[in-house]
Design goal:
The complex is a heterodimer. Chain A is an alpha/beta fold. Chain A contains 17 helices and twelve strands. In chain A, the strands form three sheets. A six-stranded parallel beta sheet of chain A has the order 3-2-1-4-5-6, with helices on both faces. In chain A, strands 7-8-9 form a three-stranded antiparallel beta sheet, covered by helices on one side. The chains are: A alpha/beta, B alpha/beta.
Chain lengths: 417, 422
């Protein structure tokens, strides 16, 4: 692979964060050319390293492609922050870095003397991101739930699903996929400010506060109109039809949304149902909203005999927004995403070649610098020698004391929670 | 207002914002960070002004709460860029702009002579960020998209909803384009770093579809390794062994997010035990549940679906006797892994958000009152995000921008107004 220089060439990041949001945030910088060192340990491996699936279904801290994807393009060192020699290396890393990030339960970094107040004494211009579910202060600061709990308290679960059913939220940790883009935006803004003024700063991210911006209008609706947004399936007030319709095959669906009268006209002609244009039940948006269940039934009667792909193309040819409800398999095989090189294969040192999703944007002049994720401690030698210039004695002391970890001391791998 | 003595990180920069819908959040975040973001609207007003909900349910283009929420901190001018004069004024604005944000169909701005190739001739430093349903290239680049199709095209929809009904989206619809908008903000600032060091501007091409593909989380890897394509399972949490546990339960006044945990992770089992103790104190934990061997008998790798269903029954019954607030209070006090499924009212009245002084009030003189806004998306110690102005009225800053900053004469402005350009 040719040496590429990304937009962020020269920026140095010490990433102490783990699991979802922290690494997903730093990924933006790592894949854009920054040099990122991910701090891990064998004594307390990242939870994602212990999650299925594993290569060949054989558990192992270096065998999970999901951890590798989340932590793509970074270098991994294995140090135990509970040990003095481990902390000494951490300090060297911090002095080397422009940016550091952590995502532990509030107070954890302080326990190790690595909190912002302490770090800024020795490195006043550091940009220091702390990200956690609830933020560093407040009554629930120490609450630590799973991602689906963050999505629930964050207001998303309640508005997911059908009005007559128990909410059915997105799979997994929805807010974990909101917060990182905000975090990356914040770090970049802080870096620009530092470039201009020389000043570093502390960034306190409550993922709860960040993700509330994705429900901003319904929260205002409550304040102003005393209305609580409810689940509405796939329907909206301002468009009809607006739903997913069943297609030919096993669990195949197409999503169609129609906003204007002109689109409705084209839709009816495409379905060869010109009579709907004069049907008092369907002629206007207001009528369609009143008779939406019947409308959906009629459309489903038409889509069910066709493939989702066929309907998508027919609709797009008529200038109507429609998409196959893509399955995971569809996404992996999607020619459009392939043409954009969105899903790439990189060669992980243990997993071998496997799929990585890229950043969701392309820069025309500074392409990304993505590469595979690391095995645990894979870059110890490079980081200790080339980046931090540790002496052989310092490395030996770290190995003897266990400040540099080399072996996972885990009783048994739990394939799932 | 900006805190006394505090600066804003993006204060020196000017942004021209042509976006609409959820993509508006891109410019809003950059405005929160201090950039001077000028929303450029069609003289009839940005289409997103028609998006509800509306202030006091009055459907009016100056009363859209959606517009308020995602255009706060911006200034606004009107300009019909489809007219030759309008395009000319836009080019003049671009000379002094650092960023242009847009969410039109690919090729539309090029057709007006306002694409990246044109604008970079005028201002080689400019960064142009385009946020579109499928990106600027590829066989589907010209596909028409909506928020619903954005959710469907990236696969999030296929994995969400009850299995016996159609797949779902989230009932506050613009999620897909909001993801795209925030991606645009992060990407714009990555390009900005390079520009400030080298003087080189560039085009940023954001795909909303790609943003929603990340919502599939590890499903890509699960498919790659196991050849299993995840589908929707309602309110269950599926494990590798194919056993589903509830992850949402009804309670007395709503729903909570909770899962019964057993197996080898002591922290999770301790949480289950603390909850069972509480149930026992209320007389709602049967003898067998109090003596249950969570480590061995509820290991998800081995437990059967029948056993899961049996064990969940007393939890179902207990939660129905408690409110969301009661359950949540014990959860964070006793470290029980459980959270309420908040609705809009719960969010607005949440203790944690109040304790951290999250909400911000902004005056709307035209409405005769202040409205509450979601506060800083991150707390910056040195350059705290500030709320300086409510969303612009239609053409509110025309005179300020065109006359005061661009130097157009009053006569010229009157002409442009009569020609329908502004």
């Amino acid at each position: 692979m040719a040496q590429k220089k990304g937009a962020l060439e020269g920026i140095k990041i010490a990433n102490f964060s783990w699991v979802g949001v922290g690494p997903l945030t730093i990924r933006y910088l790592a894949a854009s050319g920054a040099t990122v060192v991910r701090v891990e340990s064998h004594t307390r491996p990242d939870v994602l390293r212990l999650m299925m699936p594993y290569k060949d279904k054989q558990p192992g801290v270096d065998r999970g492609p999901w951890f590798a994807e989340v932590n793509n393009s970074v270098r991994s060192v294995s140090i135990d922050l509970g040990k003095p020699t481990g902390r000494a290396i951490a300090w060297k890393l911090i002095m080397w870095a422009d940016v550091m990030a952590e995502s532990f339960v509030p107070g954890t970094m302080k326990k190790w003397g690595l909190d912002y107040d302490n770090v800024r004494q020795k490195k006043p211009d550091i940009i220091y991101l702390s990200t956690c579910q609830m933020g560093q202060s407040g009554p629930y600061a120490n609450f630590s739930g799973f991602g689906y709990q963050a999505a629930a308290i964050g207001g998303f679960t309640y508005v997911s699903g059908w009005p007559d059913r128990t909410p059915a939220p997105t799979q997994g940790a929805y807010t974990d996929f909101i917060a990182p883009r905000f975090g990356a935006t914040a770090i970049m803004a802080a870096l620009d400010y530092r470039r201009r003024t020389g000043k570093g700063q502390y960034l306190d991210q409550s993922q709860f506060e960040t993700s509330a911006h994705f429900l901003a209008a319904p929260i205002m609706d409550y304040e102003v109109n005393n209305r609580v947004l409810e689940r509405s399936g796939n329907h909206v007030d301002y468009a009809a039809p607006h739903a997913a319709y069943p297609c030919k095959g096993d669990d195949r669906w197409v999503a169609i949304s129609i906003f204007t009268d002109a689109e409705w006209q084209d839709f009816c002609l495409t379905l060869d149902k010109p009579e709907w244009l004069d049907d008092p039940r369907f002629a206007t948006l207001l009528a369609r909203k009143e008779n939406e269940d019947e409308l959906d039934r009629q459309i489903a009667g038409w889509t069910v005999d066709r493939t989702a792909e066929e309907v998508e193309v027919m609709m797009q040819d008529a200038g109507i927004a429609a998409s196959v409800v893509n399955s995971v398999k569809d996404i992996i095989e999607d020619p459009h995403l392939k043409s954009q090189n969105f899903l790439r294969t990189y060669n992980h040192s243990v997993v071998g070649p496997h799929l990585y999703r890229a950043l969701c944007h392309r820069l025309s002049k500074t392409p990304d610098t993505m590469g595979p994720g690391p095995a645990l401690g894979e870059h110890n030698e490079y980081v200790f020698k080339e980046l931090l210039h540790l002496t052989d004695d310092e490395v030996a002391d770290g190995l003897v004391e266990g400040g540099i970890t080399t072996e996972a001391n885990l009783p048994e791998f739990k394939p799932t929670l | 207002m900006t805190q006394p003595g505090k600066d804003l990180p993006l204060k020196p920069y000017r942004i021209l914002d042509l976006t609409q819908g959820g993509c508006l959040i891109c410019g809003k975040l950059l405005a929160d960070l201090g950039a001077d973001v000028v929303q450029i609207e069609d003289p009839k007003g940005n289409p997103s002004r028609s998006m509800g909900p509306f202030y006091k349910d009055i459907p009016h283009s100056e009363k859209s709460l959606f517009w308020f929420a995602y255009s706060v901190n911006k200034r606004g001018v009107t300009l019909d860029i489809e007219t030759a004069d309008g395009a000319d004024v836009f080019r003049q604005l671009v000379k002094k702009a650092d960023f242009v944000l847009e969410s039109f169909e690919p090729g539309y701005l090029d057709s007006l002579g306002l694409g990246y190739d044109d604008l970079s001739q005028i201002n080689p430093r400019v960064i142009m960020t385009s946020i579109t349903p499928y990106g600027q290239t590829g066989p589907k680049a010209h596909y028409k998209g909506s928020d619903l199709t954005g959710w469907a095209s990236g696969g999030a929809m296929h994995t969400m909803g009850d299995p016996d009904r159609a797949p779902n989206w989230i009932s506050f619809g613009p999620q897909a384009s909001l993801h795209g908008g925030v991606e645009g903000a992060a990407a714009s600032l990555i390009a900005h770093w390079h520009r400030e060091l080298t003087g080189e501007g560039q085009q940023v091409d954001v795909s909303i579809q790609q943003c929603t593909v990340w919502l599939l989380q590890a499903a890509i890897q699960i498919y790659e390794v196991n050849r299993v394509s995840y589908s929707r399972v309602g309110a269950l949490w599926m494990t590798g062994g194919g056993v589903g546990r509830r992850q949402v339960y009804p309670c007395k006044d709503g729903f909570i997010a909770f899962t019964v945990f057993g197996g080898g992770l002591p922290g999770l089992v301790a949480s289950t035990r603390r909850l069972v103790d509480w149930m026992a104190a209320d007389g709602m934990a049967p003898e067998w549940l109090q003596n249950y061997k969570w480590e061995t008998d509820f290991d998800v790798a081995k437990v059967t679906q029948e056993e899961v269903n049996r064990v969940e029954v007393p939890f179902v019954e207990f939660f129905l006797t408690k409110t969301k607030a009661e359950l949540w209070e014990q959860a964070w006090k006793q470290s029980i892994i459980l959270a309420p499924a908040s609705d809009a009212k719960d969010m607005y009245t949440d203790q944690q958000l109040a304790a951290r002084d999250y909400w911000r009030k902004l005056d709307h003189p035209e409405l005769g009152e202040s409205l509450t806004y979601c506060g800083p998306f991150i707390k910056f110690s040195e350059t705290p995000i500030s709320f300086r102005r409510r969303a612009p009225l239609i053409g509110e800053h025309n005179t300020e921008v065109y006359q005061g900053e661009l130097g157009l004469s009053k006569e010229r402005l009157i002409l442009l107004k009569q020609a329908g350009v502004i």
